[in-house]
UniProtKB/TrEMBL annotation:
Transmembrane helix in keyword set: no
GO molecular function, one term: hydrolase activity
Keywords linked to the UniProt accession: Hydrolase
Name of the protein this chain belongs to: Rid family hydrolase
InterPro entries attached to this UniProt entry: RutC-like_sf, YjgF/YER057c/UK114
Amino acid sequence: MSAQGNGSALSAAPDIALASVTATGSSRDRVSDPDLANRPHFERRTVAGRENEVRIRRVTGFDRRRGGFPSRLSEQCRQALMNGSDSLAAAGLSMQDVVRVVYLVRDADAFPACFPLLRDAFGDARPAATLRLVCDFDVPDVKIELELIARPQLHADHRA
């Protein structure tokens, strides 16, 4: 899949790195380019019997305006949620379309400080969630990384 050939709104979104989907799935490789490490990876796939599924991986709390990562996990979580929301918007989706989220953190004890941010970000959507404790990230300053899986929802105003 390429940003140029798919004709989607993603081709106009320079902050999203497109990841290809292979027959065996996608693998998470170490990123040698530090700029790519700070950009989410986007995949769109059709799942048998379901609508298109959008998966945005490697969403971090990198703040482009300040050129770095906030020092606290909760601040990085807030920024990661904003970055994820921006990436979803580029795909024509919102946080309300998220059906699953995977949180990768190094410090599980600090994660509860993110709960109010998560409630505000997802509202009534309440996606399924997985919390994974990791030893390290590719970029040393990263404290949290998100993986968002979204499906276009059939809202009440679009039903026949």
